[in-house]
Amino acid sequence: MENKDIQIIDSTMKSMELILAEAKVTNEEELGEISNKIKQVRDAKKKLQELKEAFVGPAKQIIEEAKGRYDDKIKFCDTVARQLDEVAKTYMLAQENIRIQKEAEIAKKLEEGKIKTETAVKRMEKLPDAPKTINTGASKLQMKKRKVAEIVDVSKIPDEFWEVNEVRVRQEAMIREKNGLPQIPGVIIKEVVDMSH
User: Which end of the chain, N or C, is less surrounded by CB atoms within 10 Å?
Assistant: First the structure.
């Protein structure tokens, strides 16, 4: 950014502060002055936006070019990594299930009295552990289990957990108002005052 641009910005900010400090309306002449000052402020904002765009425009172009060149490739890497995670997880869970099945078989034989407690303990101790961590030195892969909440029946969820889609409600309320239809319960239409320039 050039010194000239910095001076324009500093000067603009000082004039905005002065305009705001002197703002008062007690008659129509002062109302006209305020209208002119609002236009000055909007023009100053437009100039600042132009300066900003001239400053950041080239950077935006570089960013867009980089996104176009790399984003799809980065997403593909994520997809491949997720798929490889699934392959590893499938194997690790299968090994864990084999161990669980063998433990259940030993426990069943113990319950049926086919083997002694000491024999059952020895057999369980000999079972290989299912892999939960693989460390190759170059990489480490670890399977962790965590609990997650899953919604299985939306109709049973209490009202306290539902959020109102305010945008949709406002749009529908205005359509009903425009067409003279009964209003949505809990919604009123009121008139607010905005200034147009």
Answer: C
